[in-house]
Design brief:
The structure holds 2 protein chains of 2 kinds. Chain A is mostly helical. Chain A has helices at 6-25, 28-44, 46-49, 55-69, 97-107, 111-122, 127-134, 138-152, 158-161. Chain B has helices at 4-25, 34-64, 66-76, 105-109, 255-262, 304-315, 377-386; strands at residues 126-128, 131-134, 137-140, 146-148, 161-164, 179-184, 201-202, 206-209, 215-219, 236-242, 247-253, 266-267, 285-290, 296-301, 334-339, 350-356, 361-365, 370-371. In chain B, helix 2 (34-64) packs across helix 5. The longest helix of chain B has 31 residues, at 34-64. Chains A and B meet through helix 1, helix 2, helix 4, helix 5 and helix 6 of A and helix 1 and helix 2 of B.
Chain lengths: 167, 392
């Protein structure tokens, strides 16, 4: 049914990719959708990615670029509302208060700030690597990261982040 | 971890990483057979182009015979005739309808012409006299439908709803059965710009002209069906971008309703002009070249000199399209050119959409302006972007 090795790869990596997608989008539904959309590209490129390539790096790169452009692409799926609906309480996947607060704070960030924040502070990529992945200037990465941190310091994560010295 | 400023940076990293880890520690995928789901999705994606081709026929029909449809809709579609007058959304004088598919400039342009909206100017959708308005765009609220100004905190949106100022998310949780959304991009939110890897295959763009003269850029949508439960397989998602009005519209409708709703669209005329472009494009450029009717290939450059060359080439296009002489249809695959500002901030991107077919050559800037283009322009620009030999 599937290209050789693809099913095994997806089975092994799907949960980790979904978690990555959830952070990049700050939404469980969007996050899993982002993963599946990215895996479609991986599936179509499977012949050159397997066995000699790195399908996980490819998939993550596709995810990051899709999340980065989500706000800027011509036909967006983002909801342009002033205040986001607080649907997390009804989401059984946001099982803890901290998870709920963190995802809500991420959701309040513009997509580009959120992506840079996740890449820098969760994936722990150097800023130049982030810029290379996103195809943007190093200064853009720095400014997005700084703005994201500044926003977090005034949002629901303020208590958790405010005491941290500014970089 | 406690070393001066560097120690502070480390603490930031660790603290945020812990928080982010916690946020997704309990996350479990909903899809139980993801590999099969991905394969199914890949196959649906390939079929989608065929589906969208039928939608394109509707859009092309509306564009080509917009005025005639407007008149017809008032009689037989169930939409009130009074609500389909072009230009009524802004209170400006309406263009006189004619039976011609290529109305004269005076008829199409109307007596009131608007200046191009300032980029980034806030716009807000609203309902006035049974029409949803945003900028110079409007459409009639279908009879029996309701409008909703805010997203529900939980639950799904009922059928036959127009969401005003926002759009529901396609997350598979709720069907989007007969849902129309009208919203805009305001304030600092930029428009346009697709950063996609070189060689990526994407659906092609398309553009056509709405009643009143404003362009609509068409997205093929990222969803095979807005009803994930399969109860309404006839539903389609069509997303239109009216850049001159800062308006976005998503239509989750069946074929018949789609035709009726589009027949009520009105836009405010704009004065003909050459392409309005940024003063510079030193940050680079992105390019999506249509390769055939169903796909497009991305190319890009971050080279300032090349971006400036592209901008300079676009500035040479001075054959302004007269009102009513627009020729691009939704069936024509188009090329999108994104020009980035010099500050590298990736905001305020400029998009120019070029239709180049044997019967129509037309370029439209999202900031205003519509011109004819010489044959082969897309190839020329592609060569500048990539530094490669001609594609054909």
């Amino acid at each position: 049914m599937t290209a050789g090795g693809f099913e095994e790869y997806v089975t092994a990596r799907y949960t980790a990719l979904v978690r990555y997608g959830v952070l990049l989008t700050a939404d469980h539904g969007h996050g899993e959708d982002l993963v599946q959309a990215s895996l479609v590209k991986t599936y179509r490129a499977w012949e050159r990615l397997h066995p000699g390539g790195d399908p996980d790096a490819y998939t993550r790169r596709v995810m990051v670029r899709a999340a980065w452009r989500a706000q800027r692409r011509l036909w967006r799926r983002e909801m342009p509302v002033a205040q986001l609906p607080d649907t997390a309480a009804a989401d059984p996947f946001e099982s803890t208060d901290v998870a709920h607060v963190v995802l809500r704070a991420l959701r309040a960030l513009p997509a580009q700030q959120r992506v840079v924040l996740v890449l820098k502070y969760w994936a722990e990529l150097p800023e130049q690597d982030i810029a290379d992945q996103l195809g943007c200037a190093l200064g853009t990465v720095k400014s997005r990261a700084n703005r994201a941190l500044a926003t977090l310091r005034t949002g629901p994560l303020a208590d958790m982040v405010a005491a941290v010295p500014r970089p | 971890v406690g070393l001066d400023i560097r120690g502070g940076v480390l603490r930031v990293t660790e603290q945020l990483r812990d928080l982010l880890d916690t946020a997704v520690a309990g996350t479990r995928p909903r899809e139980t057979d993801p590999a099969a789901a991905v394969v199914r999705r890949s196959r649906r994606g390939r079929r989608r182009t065929a589906v969208m081709a039928s939608v394109a026929v509707v859009l092309a029909t509306v564009a080509a015979a917009s005025v005639g449809i407007l008149v017809g809709a008032g009689r037989g579609s169930g939409f009130p005739a009074a609500s389909i007058s072009p230009g009524s959304s802004t209170g400006s004088a309406s263009p006189e309808p004619t039976a011609s598919s290529a109305p004269t400039p005076s008829a199409s342009a109307g007596p009131t012409l608007s200046a191009a909206p300032p980029r980034g100017a806030p716009t807000e959708a609203r309902v006035v006299n049974g029409r949803v308005e945003l900028g110079g765009f409007s459409l009639a609220v279908p009879p029996g439908w309701t409008t909703v100004g805010k997203p529900p905190f939980d639950g799904c949106i009922p059928p036959m709803t127009v969401t005003v100022g926002w759009a529901p998310v396609h997350d598979g949780r709720c069907p989007l059965d007969r849902i129309i959304s009208v919203w805009g991009e305001g304030g600092p939110t930029p428009r346009g710009g697709m950063v996609i890897p070189q060689g990526t295959t994407t659906p092609p763009m398309a553009q056509f002209t709405l009643p009143g003269g404003q362009p609509a850029f068409i997205g093929t949508g990222s969803h095979e069906s807005p009803d994930p439960f399969g109860n309404r397989p006839d539903l389609r998602t069509v997303t239109l971008d009216m850049p001159w009005s800062n308006a976005l519209v998503e239509l989750n409708l069946g074929y018949r309703d789609l035709t009726r709703v589009l027949a009520t669209v009105a836009t405010t005329p704009f004065p003909p002009s050459p392409l309005r472009l940024h003063a510079d494009a030193q940050g680079g450029g992105y390019f999506v070249a249509a390769t055939d009717e169903t796909s497009a290939t991305a190319a890009f450059t971050g080279d300032t000199a090349r971006a400036e060359l592209i901008l300079a080439r676009l500035r040479t296009l001075t054959d302004v399209v007269a009102p009513g002489q627009e020729c691009a249809t939704a069936n024509d695959p188009a090329t999108g050119i994104y020009l980035l500002p010099s500050d590298g901030a990736m905001t305020g991107n400029e998009l120019v959409v070029i239709t180049e077919t044997p019967t129509c050559t037309e370029a439209t800037s999202m900031m205003g302006g519509r011109v004819r283009v010489p044959p082969g322009l897309v190839d020329q620009l592609h060569q500048i972007f990539t530094g490669t030999a001609p594609r054909r």
